[in-house]
Amino acid sequence: MNVERTRKKKKINIMKKLLVSIVLIAGMLTVNAQSPVDKIFNKYAGQDGYTTVVINSFMFKLMASIETNDPDYEDFKKASAGIESIRILAQDGHGSVGFGRELIESLPRKEYEELMVVKESDEEVLFLAREEGGVITEFLLVVSGEDGDDALIVFTGNIDLESIASLSQGLDLPAMENLGDFDERP
Q1: pTM check: above 0.85
Q2: What is the mean pLDDT of the chain?
């Protein structure tokens, strides 16, 4: 009987070690699987010289539950219906390091469709979208410049470009004025 108990204990110890190893490996893979966008957010969020805003789906659900007769607000609710989150990272000026170029160089460009690029002498604005099954699931607006005004806006969810343009008018957040360019499409 003691021999059988010893075998069971050994099996249990082996199973525990195997389980701990699997959990550790899964954790390491999750950390390594961060997208370049997530890495940029994690690197600069909470640092001096940067502002981070995260709006999650629960906020949109709360806003959708508000009853009003305002047609603009109804348009805003309709436009935000498919959005799961909006994340914004904005550089607050010249005293901080720009992240736009770093992000542009680290993005896996084959995963994103380039919708529009606006280049000026001291600034580049990229509009990128990730599509899955015919639906835009992630929309990026990346502003990279020399004046300490880099910005990144990330929309996730089931997104259409009209909704994004409509939201850009309703939210007064850094770099959102660049989204208005979609309203000017032919």
Answers
A1: no
A2: 75
